[in-house]
């Protein structure tokens, strides 16, 4: 079996003295895991997390780990490697993708959103807002599309003050009044999206990555 696609190298873990197990988020095939031969000892063209490039994955059986051939084009995270405040967003995104996305299922919109976020991150004046937009795309791809354009109760577009945790739809102040203790407040924050992500993790039987919990905690303080 053979898979080919452009992709982002989102995880690299040493397997032995020479090789590493990689997770590459590809545009056509989603998250793919495989072995990168010689990745640990490479002195030139060394694979690094954050690189974008062309990935070819091959295995004799569909259920096998498989082996990558990786041709890096550019490291999208290189311009922010010394900016700890911004690299936290990258670590969080890569961990969420690895944790929440099933392997070998295409998420083209999320892939494009991820590349756009990483490309803009060095120069954006609002990294938190950009990150929230990315999380909204993630939630939509996972079946939790947030609708912040009109009230789910009356259909109005004004005075949208709350968000339903069940439907992910906005609620105006008047419609929200009897149910305020059961609704999330708007505007949308990292705390709000975290609760949706935790719900997804609970359904999958996994835990929210620590990088996401840390991100919320530090933004609150």
Walkthrough of the structure:
By secondary structure, this protein is α+β, with helices and mostly antiparallel strands. A hairpin with a 6-residue loop joins strand 6 and strand 7. The longest helix has 17 residues.
List the helices and strands and how they pair.
Layout: E1 2-14, E2 20-26, E3 30-36, E4 51-58, E5 67-75, H1 84-100, H2 108-120, H3 127-141, E6 160-163, E7 170-172, H4 173-176, E8 184-185, H5 190-204, H6 210-220
Antiparallel strand pairs: 1-2, 1-4, 2-3, 4-5, 6-7, 6-8
Helix pairs in contact: 1-6, 2-3, 3-5
Query: What CATH first level of the domain at 1-75 would be assigned?
Result: Mainly Beta
Distance between the termini: 49 Å
Helix/strand order, N-terminal first:
EEEEEHHHEEHEHH
Q: Which fold does the CATH topology of the domain at 1-75 refer to?
A: OB fold (Dihydrolipoamide Acetyltransferase, E2P)
User: Structural class, from secondary structure content?
Assistant: alpha+beta
Radius of gyration in whole Å, from Cα?
19 Å
Q: What would you give as the CATH superfamily of the domain at 1-75? A: Nucleic acid-binding proteins
Strand tally is 8
Helix content: 25-40%
Report the uncertain regions. Answer: none
Architecture of the domain at 1-75 in CATH? Answer: Beta Barrel
Q: Please report which band the strand proportion falls in: under 5%, 5-15%, 15-25%, 25-35%, 35-45% or over 45%.
A: 15-25%
Strand order of the largest sheet: 3-2-1-4-5
